[in-house]
Amino acid sequence: MTEDAAKRAALSAKLRELGARFTERNVGDLAALVACVERLRTGAPDALRDIEAIAHRMSGTGATLGFHAISAAAEALERLAGSPGVTQMELTAAIETLRVAIARHEQQA
């Protein structure tokens, strides 16, 4: 194996590792997003900001790793959470869309 091929193989392995860690973290992130919606029901003022932050991280990491459907769904959730007058029902639907994107990715992996 040439030096370039070895470097490409090492990079590919590292990207697979990062992708696996991202996929594992998605489970916790989805639970955190659902918990944020529950916190909204109790009037927690920072819950929307937390949803935006989690969705922003998921969108950016997903885009970096090439998980475009996850990234797009997370970006849509981030924008929605920053919209004035957003409802819990809208947030819940967007989180479900994100969950489906993650599930499809996991099935393809």
Description:
This protein has one domain (17-108): Up-down Bundle (Four Helix Bundle (Hemerythrin (Met), subunit A)), CATH 1.20.120. α1 packs antiparallel against α4 (88-108), α2 runs antiparallel to α3 (68-81) and α3 runs antiparallel to α4 (88-108). It is mostly helical. The radius of gyration is 16 Å and the shape is elongated. It has helices at 3-41, 47-65, 68-81, 88-108. It has four helices and no strands. The protein starts with a helix and ends with a helix.
Short description:
By secondary structure, this protein is an all-alpha fold.
Oligomer: single chain
Could you list the spans in which at least 5 consecutive residues all have pLDDT below 50?
A: none
What shape does the CA trace take?
Answer: elongated
Write the CATH fold name: Four Helix Bundle (Hemerythrin (Met), subunit A)
Find the count of extended strands (DSSP E, 2+ residues).
Answer: 0
Number of domains: 1
Q: What characterizes the major β-sheet? A: none
Strand content: under 5%
**CATH class call:** Mainly Alpha
Q: Please state the CA-atom Rg, rounded to the nearest Å.
A: 16 Å
CATH architecture: Up-down Bundle
Individual helix count: 4
Helix/sheet category: mainly alpha
Helix content: over 70%
The overall pLDDT average reads 92
